Amino acid sequence: MNRQNYYNYIHEKLMVLFYRVKNNGRLNLLDLNIHSENFFAELLI
């Protein structure tokens, strides 16, 4: 039961991040892109 809740929570937060990065990129506001890229690069190492 908790696994599904955790998955849904993480999925929701990643989708919010995705839409914010996408919309800010259209406005040429790229600071969130850079921070996200650095975070995920460290996460995957």
Task: Note down, in words, how this protein is organized.
There is one protein chain. By secondary structure, the protein is mostly helical. The protein has helices at 2-26, 31-44. The model has no long low-confidence stretch (mean pLDDT 95).
* Gyration radius over CA: 13 Å
Oligomeric grouping of the chains: single chain
Low-confidence stretches: none
Classify the helix fraction into a percent range: over 70%
Overall pLDDT score: 95
Overall shape: it is flat
What is the H/E string? HH
Largest sheet: none
Number of DSSP helical runs = 2
The proportion of strand residues reads: under 5%
Helix-strand makeup class: mainly alpha
Total beta-strand segments: 0
Distance between the termini: 29 Å
InterPro entries: SMEK_dom
Protein name: SMEK domain-containing protein
Organism: Clostridium tetani
Domain SMEK: 9-44
Question: What attributes does this structure have?
Answer:
45 residues, mainly alpha, 2 helices, flat, SMEK domain-containing protein, SMEK_dom
Topology:
Layout lengths: L1 H25 L4 H14 L1
Short description:
The chain has 45 residues and is mostly helical. It has helices at 2-26, 31-44. 0% of the residues are buried.
